[in-house]
């Protein structure tokens, strides 16, 4: 059980920071530039996973399981978000025949 943090520690913490930052930036760019609601949800999940990676790396480097426990709760909330979000997207697609977020302005009326 103690071997897993040792394997994670073989890679410098800076690499985890760079990789997580790159994933988070890709997610932000996807949310800001894409208009398809499913792609936007995927980019939000990418941002959540980048934060989870960073929490796991910090947790392993400090030999503290609290970060990994927090990751578990983030993943549970993300799964609930995906279930509700996809249900909303399916209902919007049934009504409007599109998942383009620009068309969703019609829902204001």
From TrEMBL:
Protein source organism: Rufibacter roseus
Family statement: Belongs to the complex I subunit 4L family.
Signal listed as a keyword: no
Record keywords, A-Z: Cell membrane, Membrane, NAD, Oxidoreductase, Quinone, Translocase, Transmembrane, Transmembrane helix, Transport
Regions annotated as coiled coil: none
Subunit structure: NDH-1 is composed of 14 different subunits. Subunits NuoA, H, J, K, L, M, N constitute the membrane sector of the complex.
Broadest EC class assigned to this enzyme: translocase
Record-given protein name: NADH-quinone oxidoreductase subunit K
EC number in record: 7.1.1.-
Protein's job: NDH-1 shuttles electrons from NADH, via FMN and iron-sulfur (Fe-S) centers, to quinones in the respiratory chain. The immediate electron acceptor for the enzyme in this species is believed to be a menaquinone. Couples the redox reaction to proton translocation (for every two electrons transferred, four hydrogen ions are translocated across the cytoplasmic membrane), and thus conserves the redox energy in a proton gradient.
Gene name for this UniProt entry: nuoK
């Amino acid at each position: 059980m103690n071997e897993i943090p040792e394997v994670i520690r073989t890679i410098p913490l800076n690499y985890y920071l760079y990789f997580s930052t790159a994933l988070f930036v890709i997610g932000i760019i996807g949310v800001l530039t894409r208009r398809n609601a499913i792609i936007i949800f995927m980019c939000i999940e990418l941002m959540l996973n980048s934060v989870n990676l960073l929490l796991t790396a910090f947790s392993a480097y400090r030999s503290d399981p609290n970060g990994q426990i927090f990751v578990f709760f983030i993943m549970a909330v993300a799964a609930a978000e995906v279930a509700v979000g996809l249900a909303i997207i399916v209902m919007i697609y049934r009504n409007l025949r599109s998942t383009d977020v620009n068309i969703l302005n019609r829902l204001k009326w």
